[in-house]
Every structure is written in C-alpha cells, then in structure tokens.
Amino acid sequence: MVLDTSGIGRFDTITVIGLFDGIDTKTMIKGINLDFSCIARELKRYKIIVTYNGAAFDIPFIRKRHPGLLPDIPHFDLKPACDRIGLTGGLKEIEKKMGIKRNSIIEKMHGGDAATLWRMHRATGDEYYLRLLVEYNEEDVINLKTIAEHVVEKLKEKSFEPNEKLEKDKNYNSNSLSFSI
To answer: Which residues in the chain land under pLDDT 70?
Structure first.
C-alpha cells in the first residue's frame, strides 16, 4: 500500500492511495474515485499490508484521519527490514541500489514531490500532473513487491547463517546448532 497526501500537516488529506495484490494495481484519487468504504472492503481481502516506512507515516496517517479503515491484519514495513539487511535510505534509493528502473521523469522524484504534483494539478487543472502522480504512486506500490521478495529472501539467509562467535569458540558443540536472527 502506498499513500500520497497533500502534505504532512494536521489538515492534510490523502490524495492518492495505491494498492497492489501482486497482480493488479488499484489507484484511488481524491475527487475522482477515492472511496474509503471501497478501500476498507478491498483491504479486507488482503492477508498482509506491505509499506515502506508505513509504520511511521502511512498507518498513523490513516488511523488518525480514518479510524477503522485498516483491517486487523499484519503490517510489514519494509524500511526497518531493509535496514536490517544493509539496504538503507528512502524507497527510491533502495530501488536504485537494487537496479529497479523507473520512467526517467519519475525516477528523479521523491516523497515530497507527490504533494507538489497534487498541488500543481489542483492549481492548473492540467491532467499531466495527475498522470505523473498516478504513475509515481503505481510504480511505488508495484516495486514494493520486488523489494519485499528480495528482503524476505535475504532475511531468511541471514536467519540461517551459523553464529560466527560459536563457530570460533573451541567449546563449540556441532550437535547443538545456534542461529543468529
């Protein structure tokens, strides 16, 4: 799930919410097709919500402004998981490190640019800005799957690496396995 907002202030709102079930994206836009009852129904179909930095931003933003919207399902925030395997930085930085490519215009954008695109669309009525915002959101939400798969695989590998300290310890008993998690 990827949330784009008009800003981070108290009175800011959700402008675009992107969902991806691994096959199809659903993009809902304020003033066009953003319907919170539809979002609630859609999210109830999911077994897990995957975000990037969602524990710090997306989830609290939604809970504060739309209590009860999020179903009681697990949330996997990729940011701390990426940090744990040494992939640090924002979502776009992680994508670059992993070799994930985007449209050249979108590739240069970062989180705050979504709010700017929204304001430009609202001020001018130019659909170009809205299309860029939707593309930006969709690429974010689709790329979460690729990153999640990579992170989960790396975490599995890391979880099953023998504990180096015990291997070097002369009293190490090879019949008792210890794994660092």
So the answer is: 161-181
